[in-house]
Amino acid sequence: MEKDTFILGIETSCDETAAAVVKNGRTICSNIISSQIPVHRKFGGVVPEVASRHHTEQITYVVDLALKEAEISLEELSGIAVTAGPGLVGALLVGLQYAKGLSFALNKPLLAVNHIHGHISANYLAHPDLVPPFVSLVVSGGHTFIVRVRSYKDFQVVAQTRDDAVGEAFDKVARALGLPYPGGPQIDRLAKEGCEDAIAFARPKFSEQTLDFSFSGIKSGVLNYLNSAKLKEEPVNAADVAASFQKAVVENLLDHLFQAARQEGAVRIAVAGGVASNSYLRDKLSRRGAQEGIEILVPPPILCTDNAAMIACAGTHLFWAKEESPLSVNASPSLGLNDPLGH
Ligand code: KG4
Ligand code: ZN
Question: What is the pLDDT of residue 44?
Fold first, then answer.
């Protein structure tokens, strides 16, 4: 019988300090997340220096708790997976240095993981029967991609945003509406009380045929609408603005996604990233999927936003491929989907 693989995952790329233990790339033994959201809320967004300091304070506690909940000792682990990029450099370094220390002290493989690969891999934890190939939509605070997933380690960009990431647009619009950070969940909630057809925000148009996205135009449309109402001293119905903005963004996302899926001959689409927890997006995706005969897979919200179980899962496939990283591996704040990490 094959020996089980237990990977400890560590994630500190932004404002969650997270650690998790995953068995055989599929079963979550523990998934601990210490969120800094309340700390950053008073600043209206993530303050990188503050994030690094909080990761430093939390990491030991979070890793200990992940091991305790999984009822596993450090010696029983097969390897240590850690996010090496993309993300905030100071925040990444905390997790990376901690993982290097463990790897060195325990003499266990260090597995440097691309955060975006991690988000996509969350689907293997949520959907035990999912195997590549499939098409993935990655929608997070920093990234918007349609990805062709050819194997557990082969990811190709089909389309991406040319300006704002979709979560970034949600957060900026929420801020303009006076809603607290992070704005995405606030827009999601407020939009339920508004009319999605109240305001027709213009959709992006490219001169060439492309599946790429642009969200800064829709975001600017909202900001202009709010400024103009302010100048004319007209009242604004924030719920209508939220609902109309959300509709414009989601329709745009889905038009491109389903066009890409048809082009790729995809039979299933796995969605990933923090914005995948948006209830309107989830609803529209499942309806459109049913119409087009394409299976839609979306992880539960806890596996959509940043977590370490997804990093442990992606790290398991590096472990099985014997692609361990040297202790010299550095944090890569602007790591692309296919950039090497020195495995
Ligand atoms: O994946 P994630 O946790 O971190 C990054 O890798 O960026 O995504 C965070 C983003 C934030 O922009 C947040 O506002 C957005 O996901 N988000 C949402 C929802 N929940 C989180 N956006 C829209 N609706 C939501 N329910
Ligand atoms: Zn993320």
Answer: 84
Asked whether residue 159 falls in the same domain as residue 40, the answer is no
Q: Is the pLDDT of residue 36 over 90?
A: no
Nearest to 18 by CA among 302, 328, 298: 302
Q: Cβ distance 87 to 13 under 8 Å?
A: yes
Ligand 1 atom closest to Cα of residue 182: 14
pLDDT digits (tens, 9 = 90+) for 319-336: 999 999 999 999 999 999
Where helices occur in the chain by DSSP H, the ranges are 37-41, 48-70, 89-106, 115-126, 166-176, 183-191, 216-231, 238-264, 279-292, 301-304, 309-320
- Say which ligand is closest to the CA of 278: 1
Residue 100: give its domain's CATH number: 3.30.420.40
Quick one: pLDDT band at residue 236, thresholds 50, 70, 90? very high
Residues 6+ apart with CB under 8 A from 159: 145, 146, 210, 211, 212, 213, 256, 260
Q: Is the CB of 299 under 6 A from ligand 1?
A: no
Nearest-CA residue for ligand 1 atom 16 is: 274
Ligand 1 within 6 A of 188 CB? yes
Q: Is position 340 within any domain?
A: no
Residue 76 has pLDDT above 70, yes or no: yes
CA of 339 to the centre of ligand 1 (A): 23
> Is residue 69 located within the same domain as residue 146?
no
* Ligand with the closest atom to the CA of 143: 1
The answer to whether 264 and 292 are in contact (CB under 8 A) is no
Same domain, 13 and 59: yes
Give yes or no for residue 16 CB within 6 A of ligand 1: no
Does residue 182's CB lie within 6 angstroms of at least one atom of ligand 1?
A: yes
Instruction: Tell whether 284 and 316 lie within a shared domain.
Output: no
Rounded to the nearest whole angstrom, what is the distance from the C-alpha of residue 140 to the centroid of ligand 1? 5
- Cα–Cα distance between 157 and 161 in angstroms, integer? 11
Whether 343 shows a pLDDT value over 80: the answer reads no
